[in-house]
Amino acid sequence: MNDNLNLSNLPTIPVAPEGFKSGFVGIIGRPNVGKSTLMNQLIGQKIAITSPVSQTTRNRLRGILTTEKAQIIFVDTPGIHKPHHSLGKIIVKNAKTAINAVDIILLVVDSSTKSGGGDRYIIDLLKTVNQPIILGLNKSDQQPENYQEIDESYASLIQDYNWPILKFSALTGDGLENLQNSLIEQLDFGPYYYPPDLITDQPERFIMGELIREQILQMTRQEIPHSVAIAIEKVEETPKVTKIFAAINVERNSQKGIMIGQKGSMLKAIGTAAREQIQKLIAGEVYLKLFVKVEPQWRQSNLRLAEFGYRVEE
Ligand SMILES: Nc1nc2c(ncn2[C@@H]2O[C@H](COP(=O)(O)OP(=O)(O)OP(=O)(O)O)[C@@H](O)[C@H]2O)c(=O)[nH]1
Q1: How much is the mean pLDDT over the chain?
Q2: What is the model's pLDDT at position 14?
Q3: pTM beyond cutoff 0.80
Q4: What is the mean pLDDT of residues 122-148?
Q5: Domain coordinates of the chain in residue numbers?
Q6: Which of 33, 38, 112 gets mutated to test ligand 1 (max ligand atoms within 8 A of its CB)?
């Protein structure tokens, strides 16, 4: 019998106690403001990848925080920006869909610099939204001396609305308890949507691919912009070690060269760092084998995008 159909294998979800609150919080913002860092910090484990290169996050990813009083499901959305190619369009479309499917919107901005056109673009998108919105000033640890001017530049953008403003640092954790309490306060009473010990809705394989992609983005920086997709081809579990075979798909031969590096040095460095991250994720020994493949123009082709796991959500 297929194990998936065996009902006794399904996780059980307890009945929530009286007064329990729950709901979905959409983390929205421009690329690179710290949305993924924030979600990881709030749920206490790395499930969303982060990097100094913008547009790191591609798919919707849920992070689940369960406390005694509440369950908050965070929906990390790809940064909203004006799209230039078909992957970009899917990313923005998914972010807009996410806005409609949540109970509270946490609009995150980078308060180490003043507001700009990109912030105004998102606030315009949110004008017609009915859910409560919180404006989160992130990167408080990096604010310069003229922080009051910066705070004012954001406050003036939302002066016509009654949105609360909270300041925090996703990196240091400063102000996050306050943020968590404000979110719980605004949530309605509700059930456990997920088992209390679950921290994400994504399968482990997806996160593994993301952890590999994170190392590529960090190590190759601007040289391999966004033309990389990871396919986890095989996972073999043995009692001692989990063997993972993953293909790194790039668009051009030149990118393949960069990815492999001199005498394979780049691929080796990526593999070593990603292996360490994956070991933390699965709490066990990992053997990671990486291959590089050239898939011309994968970003333009919706079919190929679907194969690599990028969903367009209606
Ligand atoms: N100093 C400081 N840096 C931060 C903070 N939060 C995030 N960062 C950094 O900002 C960069 C972008 O963070 P991400 O979490 O990847 O940003 P994101 O909004 O998810 O980015 P996209 O996936 O592009 O939408 C990373 O280098 C983070 O380390 C913060 O509170 N303080």
Answers
A1: 83
A2: 84
A3: no
A4: 91
A5: 3-186, 204-307
A6: 33
CATH superfamily placement of domain 204-307: K homology (KH) domain (3.30.300.20)
Can you give the pLDDT at residue 203? 75
In this structure, the residue with its CA closest to atom 16 of ligand 1 is 50
The Cα–Cα gap between 231 and 206 comes to 9
The reply to whether CATH 3.40.50.300 applies to domain 3-186 is yes
Q: What is the pLDDT of residue 314?
A: 39
pLDDT digits (tens, 9 = 90+) for 69-88: 999 999 877 666 555 556 55
Residue 216 Cα to ligand 1 midpoint, Å, equals 17
Query: Given this model, what pLDDT does residue 222 score?
Result: 65
Taking CA atoms only, the protein residue closest to ligand 1 atom 8 is 34
Q: What are 34-46's pLDDT values in tens digits?
A: 998 999 899 887 7
Q: Is 50 in the pocket of ligand 1 (CB under 6 A)?
A: yes
